[in-house]
Amino acid sequence: SEMDKVFSLIDQRLSYMKEVAADKAIKHLAVEDLRQEQKVLQKAMRTAEANHLDADSVKPLFTALMETAKVIQYRYRADWLTTPQIDWQPRKLEEIRADIALSSDLLIKELRRRLSANIGFDQVSRDRLMQIVDEPKLSDADKERIFTALQTVKLKAAKLT
Ligand SMILES: C=C(O[C@@H]1C=C(C(=O)O)C=C[C@H]1O)C(=O)O
């Protein structure tokens, strides 16, 4: 439903991580790419600013999203050490990253819509997040981190002129 849009976009962003992990595993690349993380964070803050959100307030959210993105990748990678099971062809990293960026942009726009309608993140919405973000490699504690970070996102303060 409309109320769950934020959570399904977060789930969508996380759903790309198995494919990212597979491409990196095949190429023997590290999971963590700090240069890319810097880019993702900068872009999220710019997009937030353009969407009337407080740019600094999206930092904890994107930090939590990138942390959980790495958690998922590390867990798949660990599994694949003992039971190699990449019997499919992942897309190139740049292609997957374009999809990830699209999910991030849509998430920010949806956050703006939601906060502008004065809909926040209460206990009921926490339970919805727990249900909708159903990435098998994430624990409830991982999801709880995302929820806590979501609660700090705020609209830009109105300018006093
Ligand atoms: C998803 C990736 O893996 C990690 C997670 C990132 C993210 O969530 O945006 C960015 C860089 C990596 O540290 C990636 O490399 O693109």
How would you characterize the overall build of this protein?
The structure is a single chain. The chain is mainly alpha-helical and 161 residues long. It has one domain: Chorismate Mutase Domain, subunit A (Up-down Bundle). Helix content is 66%, strand content 0%. The protein has helices at residues 5-15, 17-26, 34-50, 59-82, 93-116, 123-132, 140-150. α1 (5-15) runs antiparallel to α5. The mean pLDDT is 96. The site of the ligand C=C(O[C@@H]1C=C(C(=O)O)C=C[C@H]1O)C(=O)O has 12 residues, from α3, α4 and α5.
SS-based class? mainly alpha
* CATH overall fold name: Chorismate Mutase Domain, subunit A
Let me know the number of strands.
0
Shape-level CATH architecture: Up-down Bundle
> Low-confidence spans: pLDDT under 50, at least 5 residues?
none
Any ligands, ions or cofactors bound here, and which?
the ligand C=C(O[C@@H]1C=C(C(=O)O)C=C[C@H]1O)C(=O)O
Question: What is the count of helical runs?
Answer: 7
Share of helical residues: 55-70%
Radius of gyration: 16 Å
List keywords for this structure.
161 residues, mainly alpha, Chorismate Mutase Domain, subunit A, 7 helices, globular
Q: What is shown here, in short?
A:
The chain is mainly alpha-helical and 161 residues long. Helix content is 66%, strand content 0%.
